[in-house]
Amino acid sequence: MAQQLLQNRTPQAYAGVEAYAHRHQADEAGPLAWLVLGYAHYLDNDFPKALTSWQQAKGVAPVLGDYLAYLNASAYQAQQKNPEVIATLSDFEQKYPDSLLIHDAGLMYARALTGNGAPQRAAAYLEKHRQPVHADFEFALAQAYQQAGEKEKAAGIFRHIYFELPLSPEADTASFELKAMGELQPAGSFEDRRNRAELLLKGKRYQQAANDLSPLLEHAPGSALTELQVEFASALYRLHKREDAQHLFEGIAQSAAATAETKAQALYFLAEIAREKNDNDHRTELIIQLRTLAPESPWLQEALLSAANMYLLKKDYETATRFYSEIYQRQRNGRFSPYAHWKAAWLTYRLGKKDDAKRLFDEQLDFYPSSAEVPAAIYWRGRLAETEGDQPLARAYYSKLAEKYRYFYYANLGRDRLGKIGAENVADPPVLNKLSLPSAPPQKWDAPADNIRAQKAQLLANAALFDFAVKELQAAASGTPSWQAQATALIYADAGYYHRGIEALKRAVPNYFSANLNQLPRPVWQGLFPRPYWEELKKDSQQNELDPFLMASLIRQESEFNPAALSRANAFGLMQLLPKVGKGLAKEVKLKNFSTEVLYTPNVNLELGTRYFRHMVDHYNGQIEYALAAYNAGEERVDDWRKSGEFKDVEEFVESIPFTETREYVQAILRNAVMYKLLYPKG
């Protein structure tokens, strides 16, 4: 009832909750219902009714007193009743020292003081609360000083926000305030301005960073000029102003004042620009310069990886292999070395060099036993052993996969092959002994009975105040976040935010694919693999002769069951459909009055999305792996990849997908479909 009221706020919903509140006034449920009613009125901007309802909610005060006080003050603030805000919050910090609302309540209190003609009191209060630094508190403090007539103090704080907190929403407003006070540009030293520009660059605010760096170059001392030029050129490159960036990087690469590392950075970006222009000769020349100038530089590693990936996409596997090999040969434990070693091993296998591939697969396990590529190396080493007729050795690799990586994509494949060749007479290759068993998943999943934040979270969740409830749980975890993650996921599921629940549990149990089904509570598995819209999804899947578990897995990968998902590519809803695709499918199913917004409607998105995937499956004669790859990367790319060489089976195709995102996408969906079938065997 509470959730329905807050979502719809219809007269019927109000009446239902109010009747419930009257019936249960004598127990805990009644005051909680009044709390919900007040919050619904607050959302409707009916603040007097909100305050009246909250008068009836005092029964929740022993546990939720801070929320009741804060909400009352918020309603007063919305009506510009500053004296009432001040009276409500004057002792908030003393009464609720552990409240999560102290910051917001303090900010509201200070602003009410300023608005009520007591800026000196507001400034004194805020000065006591300046650590840790928060931009909104700083801005309120500057406004208090401004109102009190202490213009220089106000200006100093506005400058502090502008220069030292440039990523905050208050930074631009601080600049406007300084202009209103007569500073056309915030007054700061060269170092102040440089610090601001560097923070903007690190925060990926490239246009703002470029705007700030450009005038700095004119006044930079010689010792700082080259570094500023690199930063400015990097910002221009990120803004796709390649010609301007190239001109600057060329000057840096030839500068006598530049350090070897700075020149290496310039050469890397110049090589990237050459790649984008398809000027491979110049790119090769720049990488040669990088090797000579800075053989240990991470910029050389970046350049080698970029070159290897480029040749991979060009299907020049010999050259790609040489570049991947150079990466790990130069730096055995470098950032990209495990991935580069695996790519070299895989391409060696694809080139038919089986003996070298065997050595490299085993090297992957020996050199990088904790790398993400180990399951693939184990599986394909087992395949080579199987091809050579060494069944005991093949069984050893497949068995290790099933043991260590229980429900990984390759573990499922290995288990299938092990079922075909039998599990008896297993070899014991020494290289597998370096692989440790996975760590056990958390064992404590019940919330501590005496945890006040867990109690508050439960009450807030019962009132459908889900965001408040989750914040309490996030603050409650200490050392054992598993119970907090499970409780958070349950709250998000009640709210319909399945994607947030999935993410919370992934963080708590990152190795869940290595766990056995009985090692995690059933609600945890259900939170990781939820089934919202299941009946509709089953119906649409069956109409299109598709496996509903596969479709659930696809949706989990696409949107994690967020019907409001919108991608950077402008794909909408549960199955991430492009508007153009959706429009065409709507005509097929004779859906009237189609609009892009309707793709946010779950049943429409599922109907169109399953039909779209059916088209993909038909295009590839029923081969699911090709259809999944096309769903992510497009049919043209998949058709092109299939032409790149003969594949013995579809597993070789999947591992050969050159786009990491698409390769992992296909593997994840196939893996997750297995999990869905294990968790819900009755459908």
Description:
The structure is a single chain. By secondary structure, the protein is an all-alpha fold. The chain has 5 domains: 2-190, Tetratricopeptide repeat domain (Serine Threonine Protein Phosphatase 5, Tetratricopeptide repeat); 191-295, Tetratricopeptide repeat domain (Serine Threonine Protein Phosphatase 5, Tetratricopeptide repeat, Alpha Horseshoe); 353-437, no CATH class; 452-528, Serine Threonine Protein Phosphatase 5, Tetratricopeptide repeat, CATH 1.25.40; 534-679, Lysozyme (Orthogonal Bundle), CATH 1.10.530.10. Helices cover 69% and strands 0% of the residues. The protein has 38 helices and no strands. It has helices at residues 2-8, 11-23, 29-43, 47-55, 61-78, 82-89, 92-95, 102-115, 119-127, 135-147, 151-164, 170-180, 190-202, 206-219, 222-238, 242-254, 260-276, 280-293, 298-313, 317-330, 337-350, 354-367, 374-387, 391-404, 409-421, 452-462, 466-476, 482-495, 498-508, 522-528, 534-543, 548-558, 579-588, 602-619, 624-633, 635-642, 650-656, 660-679. Helix 6 (82-89) packs antiparallel against helix 8 and helix 21 (337-350) runs antiparallel to helix 22 (354-367). The two termini are 29 Å apart.
